[in-house]
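Box 3.1. Reading complex inputs
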Amino acid sequence: MTAIPLAHLLILAAALFTLGMIGVMTRRNVLVMLMSVEIMLNAVNLTLVAFSRYHGWTEGHVLAFFIIAVAAAEAAVGLAMVLAVFRLKQTVYVDELKLLKR
Amino acid sequence: MLHDLVLTAPLLILLFAALFTLVVDAFLPSSANRSFWGYFGAAASAASVLAAAGLWKFGGALEMHTTAFSHQLSMGPYSLFFIALTGICAMVTHLSSPKYMSEHGSGWGEYYALLHFAAFGMGAMVAAESLLTLFVGLEIMSMAIYVLVAIKRTSQASVEAGMKYFIMGSVASAFLLYGMAFLYGLSGSTGYLEISLALAKPGVNTLWLALAVLLTSAAFLFKVAAVPFHMWTPDAYEGAPTPITGLMSSAVKAAGFAALLKFLYACLGGPAMSSLHAQVPALFATIAVVTMTVGNLLALTQKSAKRTLAYSSIAHAGYLLLGCVAFVADPNLPGYQQPTGAVPFYLVGYAFASLAGFSALTVLGKGGEERTDEEQIIGLGRNYPFAGAVLALAMISLAGVPPTLGFFGKLQLARDVLGVEGGKYLPYIIILVLNSVVSAYYYLRITVWVYMRPEPKQTPEYIRETSLQWAMGIAAVGILLVGILPQRALQLGARGVASIRTPAALQSLRYELAKPGAQPVAQPVAQPVAQPLAKAAEAPAPVEAKPAAEN
Amino acid sequence: MDWNPSAFLPLIVGMPLLGGIINGLFGKRFSRQMVYFIANTAVLTSFLLAVMGFFALRQATVANPDAAFRTELFHWIAAGNYSFDMAFLLDPLSSVMIMVVTGVGFLVHLYSTTYMHEDPGYARYFAYLNLFIFSMLMLVLGKNLAMLFIGWEGVGACSYLLIGFWFKDMDKAEAGQKAFVVNRIGDIGFVVAIFLLLAYGNGSVDYDNLKMLFSDQVHTLAHAPTITLICLLLFVGAAGKSAQIPLYVWLPDAMAGPTPVSALIHAATMVTAGVYMIARLNFLFALSPHAMTVVMMVGALTAVMAASIGLVQNDIKKVLAYSTVSQLGYMFIAVGAGAFAAGVFHLFTHAFFKACLFLGAGAVIHAMHHEQDIRNMGGLRKKLPKVHATFLIACIAIAGLPPLAGFFSKDAILAETLAFHPETEKLEKYFEPGFERQAEAQVATEALSKGKTLGDIDKKDIDKKSAELKKDYIESIHGLGLFRKIAFGLGLMAALMTAFYMFRLYFMTFTGEYRGDKHTWDHAHDSPWPMASALIILAFLSVVGGWLGMPFHHGEWNKFFLWLEPVLSRGKELVHGHLEPAMEYGLMAGSTLVAALGVGLAWALYNGGTSDKAPQIAKASGPIYGLLLNKYWVDELYFAAIIKPLRAVSQLLFQLVDRFLVDALMVRGPGLILLGLSNVGRVVQNGEVQAYLVGLIVGVAALAWYFI
């Protein structure tokens, strides 16, 4: 099995990160925005794991596991907040949250 | 193992207090009055502060190492200083909460548990010695704060503020992690020490380093609310329950800056950054002046005191960022002076002032409404003299009128920054002075509302509660003490900063660790490692160690 | 007396603080008598201690002319390479100042017990007044610039509180804010100057340290332009506090406060802080003839401008306010000309007669039921004999007629302005190394730009360049001589106008027929004794105060100047001069003549209270009269040129950042780019959170652009 070059993995991760970023900037639905953030986090995971695999390091894997765990917690908090918003305003679209401004 | 547990006691106390609160609260009848959690929380925070004080005082005598859990956390003077500071902030927040939160229908046990978690997270991120602990600590703090901002579930403003803060915060976290991934790629490790050593080697990929620095800095700048990453701040501050706003502007800001400084200094600092040194200090200085200017100018046109203070916190972030310039400056250039305790010192003063301000505004939250506009503040000085006096004192302190901390704090910052490249940043200092002059206008305006306007016809109702008065009292005493006797806080802060492992100290430390069979370097808590290696002549005399906690 | 007053220096400062705190916290629960007792006792104790301190110091100076008492309370802050101490210094200059502050302060307290009798906020008033005395004492008794600055801000704060004392009146609250804002502008200069001095003074702004540092015959570090910059920045601060052009606009408005406050703060003490500061730092200012000339000219212009506005004002307090600005200008002429002792002397005498005038005006206003327009007064001589007599004495004193106080101090200022000149040789020597380094740098730059190496530089070139620089410097100092003559001329002009408008005020108020409404006249009554006694003491001092500074007998009779000599020695070393006795008597005669002319003019036009000629002259002078009446339209100018644009900028920034940048640019702009990227025909989003997110990303992009 030929090794995939590090650069390819990094470029893929960068593309994913950018995609996530665009998603979170353009989508109005909070749930989709949360998913986009997940994509960004997973791009980071990919970067970490790619470095680890390429150089034979280990700490990157550990960090990636922690990121996965924290991302899960984040999703829980996010969904709870979506519920709270929905109860009050019957919407999951962020552009309808414009009470606080100036 | 026991060593680790003793060393991290200040953090573990908070963690257990959080879990205890959660579990016990679940068994209480829903009709039970939960105000006692406020006192319990304050007691637990105080215990944590005392534990930090004890470690500071006796850690040296016990000849303990300063790092715990395989160099994941360091509990040296720097960490203890900030753990004590955030602990005091948490204590004041606990005390100011009970009546306010029950008036706003959210005085449940989990509120207090989350406060403990937030304080725990702050402690962990300040003490972190590796990217991993930094990230975990930061997330524990942030997630607790997201929920605390949104905890008034029936209030649209609160939930909306929490939502916005959450979305922004998680994007910022992603940036931080991506930056960390690059640092990992450059060094093959997540430990600060290893990273700084790897970056010190010649031939570091500058592009990656630049990416790593900019992504991580962006995330930290977001946390401390610097322009242009500040836009969440006014909304989150306004929507959050007032005690939480106080916590955010004091403890969260302090923890953010503390972690940023340590990260810059211990992880990125030193020869490692020499390829970027020309740019980084100038960048921080520029962001700093833009931040303070935007914060102050926007604060001028605000109508609500709470929102004014939100913009004011952006301005103060600007002042503090200018102080950070000294931490990223190239030590090899002529005319370099080691940064002193200016930033920690300023953070102490700012924390007490904003705690006092927000706890006095908490008084106005009667009946589940936020009423911090001009009409509602007028007459506070007459109808509730104590709260009025505390609010006025806080404003005077924030404005930087000399007998309080503002003047000396800024002078310290100026001194640190002027020590960089032979006073290259003097124009920035002048902008700082100009800004503090502009800011005096809106601080004074709030004081005028308190005392110098004809009273309204009907007297507004206030939250009058013993624990809230304690909170205001503690914050006010803090302002006065640090204002009248700044020396102690300044020395403690300076010792804290001196104990961060400085770039110069890193090399020798690493080699001693790497020798086969060598015992790990004993680092008595009271004797910071960096001290003998830094300017021995300037090392502060061994003062009686007594952390800020007891000030 | 061989006791050491060092021990009670903190007590002098502390008594008013204690009084202020007690009255501030518990005053509402005390009876009126209790409040009066506490406030008056506190200040009186301070005054007695100050007098004791003076005598002890006099005793000590017999043995050692440079004697001074120093008390260090505690190290306030010491970090890295600098330190501030909470420390007090009693030397000849500060002993004079504290006696003026506590003495006039006590009289004003005494006067206020009657004046504020009907006011419900008396406890608050006395607490503020005591705190003011405390801050002012911190200012003059502090041992370093940091203490001075703390007092500086403290007196400012008390002044705003007292200007806005009747805050229920919006105009008066605004006047307080105006004073605040203008003073902060001055403070910028002051703070930056302190920062620079910290750098120069090796981390200490202690007077002893600074004096030592700047008293060497040669200074290895100093550059003449840097010293000038520091002095000018300090002067910006002084101009703010002491109401000089262009920052004088707050003082006339500050008359909104209670009249005793105007007497104490806005005439006798606080506004003279700038003069005190320059006199205190005479060793620094004397090193920069250029900065001194600026100080002198600003003072001279202020003196004339304010006096000319005073000519046509009709509000009794406004006339006195502009007169104060004008007299402060006089003091700045003095310190700018190097006549530091004369400046402090005028400060000293002015404190008496101006306090007397203000308190007298207060008594008139009190008697007239808050009528302040002199057009509605007249003939009050009959109703208020005590006030009339003291007011007349103070008027003569301020007009500069011998042998009253104003004559001697004004004459000293005019004479020394004309006679003094900077000691160029000493200055040259002092800055010698500075010139050499400057020359070195210039020659080196020149050589490098021509492609030579530093090794090629000839020592002779450097010497030549250095000599050139020195020559330019000396010539520029000689060129400043002309300004002294101009300042002298302006000073004489201001003296003429002062005599005129003071007596216009006097005649219109006290002589002729009463022109107001009958009811007020019937109820007008002379001042009760606490008020009158303050007036009489001040009038007495206005008569004899000047005798301390007799110019005769080669200065040996001039006790005041001799007393200050040790503090001002360095200043005198660098700027001095000699006046021939004949010339001196000539000047005295001249200034007496000018004053008499002013009084005579006023008598001709206004004796009897009104005149037909005055309106004719006003009409004849046309636009000039309008210009003066409207105070040169300075307030309007500032509003149009500064305040309006500032408001507009704030508004604009708000619009720009929030509406335009966030809503329009950040959302729509990158949105369009992203549209192409994501290749989806999507409607551009306009949600707030996403606007913020775009801000975040733009920030990252900006950072990236900066780095890469």
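In summary: Confidence is low (pLDDT under 50) at residues 506-551 of chain B.
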